[in-house]
Specification:
Blueprint lengths: L22 H9 L7 H10 L5 H11 L10 E5 L2 E5 L20 E2 L4 H7 L4 E6 L4 E5 L13 E2 L3
Parallel strand pairs: 1-3
Antiparallel strand pairs: 1-2, 2-4, 4-5, 5-6
Helix pairs in contact: 1-2
């Protein structure tokens, strides 16, 4: 019913504002550039868009939890016109990712994001162009019965 959301506050550093929204509302606010959401949280919000209610999400997550999970570490690839956060299953994801952050430098290429998109078939990545346009590309099946994020293009 009409319960009030729990109180929330910000610290003016990492969190600078608080607002209660549905996942879809938050993604739409991001698309219209009214708010900024870091790529990992944006990815998860795009997955949550598949659920119309908390009940649906609870049912899905309790059934899906029996499948197990996978450790993830996004790997940044610097391209000529932006950067790509590569995720497991992407053709460009390294076979031996640096889970501790000890290895440097970041992966770099002189190729453009468009070239890297065309040269590869399996995509599981967040693309961040120089103009801060963000797109999530995932054309592979999620492991462990997870749901894929809804398609996101912040220039929509």
């Amino acid at each position: 019913g009409g319960r009030e959301p729990p109180a929330a506050s910000h610290d003016r550093q990492e969190v600078v504002d608080c607002r209660w929204s549905t996942p879809l509302e938050a993604v739409e606010l991001f698309n219209s550039r009214e708010i900024w959401i870091a790529p990992p949280q944006l990815y998860e919000l795009c997955r949550l868009c598949h659920f119309s209610s908390l009940h649906d999400l609870e049912r899905f997550s309790s059934e899906r939890a029996l499948e197990g999970c996978e450790r993830w570490m996004p790997v940044t690839l610097m391209a000529s016109d932006g950067h790509i956060k590569l995720l497991p299953g992407d053709d460009l994801y390294p076979k031996d990712p640096d889970f501790t952050g000890e290895r440097k430098p970041l992966l770099t290429t002189n190729k453009s994001i468009e070239e890297l998109m065309k040269e590869t078939r399996n995509h599981h990545r967040t693309v961040i162009r120089r103009d801060n346009n963000v797109t999530i590309h995932m054309n592979i099946e999620s492991k462990y019965k997870h749901v894929n994020p809804v398609r996101l293009d912040s220039n929509m």
